[in-house]
Design goal:
four-stranded antiparallel sheet, 6 helices, 246 residues, single chain, seven-stranded mixed sheet, alpha/beta
């Protein structure tokens, strides 16, 4: 959702909600805000035509960053397959210009990558291992969310939606504190241990509802959770408060 839109701003709108069929290499149509009418924005859809769309369906930036954090032991059987499944789905959803992916094994690598590319991301998907209070890095061992604060909260960083598919990181010991980082608009993660296939299914469902259909993060979270098989619980945190549990 793009709050406080101004006339002349560029926005991304899901092509699925437009009345006119537009040619786009991805699931999004990039256009300029021509006018504002209440909670709707009038955008150019080509050929001299315009449409009125809800501002809640507009995004200022679309960039999907997918980060695999390796632990050496399970990379070939879990982390790589999950990383690849989410990556290939993201490439179906959007053109390669808006999909960024990285494999790493240390906090130092994460810091270097984040400093260079964070401005490209609106949504960040993380694949790795969690224990409820920390993520495992092959080089650094278990790292808490506060240990990552100086890495993630760099100068000029904008808020992003984080979806971490690592086990148990939806618990308060990790999720609450991560959601308080300046870079985090919302943080979603499983509360329990999660099977890799279920994690992939949830991530894909959330992205479909949120980006392809233009639902808000909360509504997309609820729909994704209800549509995923199994009893795995996911939680959504925002600025230190749990706002969704399911």
């Amino acid at each position: 959702m793009a709050n406080g839109l101004q006339i002349g701003e560029d926005v991304f709108v899901p092509t699925s909600i437009l009345n006119k069929q537009v040619q786009s290499p991805s699931a999004f149509h990039r256009s300029q805000v021509l006018g504002l009418e209440g909670r709707s924005a009038r955008i150019d859809v080509g050929g001299g035509d315009t449409e009125l769309v809800a501002t809640s369906k507009c995004q200022r930036n679309i960039g999907i960053g997918i980060i695999a954090i390796g632990d050496l032991a399970s990379e070939s059987v879990l982390i790589d397959p999950l990383f690849k499944s989410v990556l290939q789905f993201a490439r179906l959803l959007s053109s390669d210009d808006f999909v960024f992916f990285h494999r790493l094994r240390s906090v130092a690598e994460l810091a270097a990558i984040w400093k260079l590319y964070h401005a490209n991301y609106s949504h960040v998907l993380i694949v790795g291992h969690g224990n409820g209070s920390a993520m495992k890095f092959a080089v650094d061992g278990w790292v808490s969310s506060w240990d990552l604060a100086n890495v993630i909260d760099v100068d000029g960083v904008e808020e992003k939606c984080f979806l971490n598919l690592s086990c148990e990181l939806g618990k308060a010991a990790y999720g609450k504190w991560f959601s308080e980082l300046a870079a985090c608009n919302s943080f979603i993660a499983p509360f329990h241990s999660v099977h890799g296939a279920v994690a992939s299914h949830f991530a894909q469902s959330f992205l479909i509802y949120h980006l392809l259909h233009g639902e808000t993060r909360k509504v997309a979270f609820r729909h994704a959770r209800h549509g995923v098989a199994g009893a795995t619980s996911f939680r959504m945190w925002r600025h230190g408060a749990m706002i969704m549990d399911g």
